[in-house]
Amino acid sequence: xxxxxxxxxxxxxxxxxxxxxxxxxxxxxxxxxxxxxxxxxxxxxxxxxxxxxxxxxxxxxxxxxxxxxxxxxxxxxxxxxxxxxxxxxxxxxxxxxxxxxxxxxxxxxxxxxxxxxxxxxxxxx
Length: 125
What we know:
By secondary structure, the protein is an all-beta fold. It contains no helices and eleven strands.
């Protein structure tokens, strides 16, 4: 089994930046896709970003495109989310996720096999 552990969340002023990390551990397992989701109170979990085996292969929804950047270091089993120009509406618990199969539908929670516990990001106005 793969364990995912997020870190780097916290409180930041609007317009500021945070860098989230997610470290994988446990059994050796191919993880061709790793992603980030977020969930605000009483809201559905929302897709944020996904990266393939190469950090050059990425996809973002319009809500974060141009502000967030996902990358990964396969030698350390770690995925990152650099968040710039943060807005109060970015406030949520951020989760990292991993998918073990190649595919095309990568922006829904059902596409992923493993999840971290989440890290809180709060953006003040």
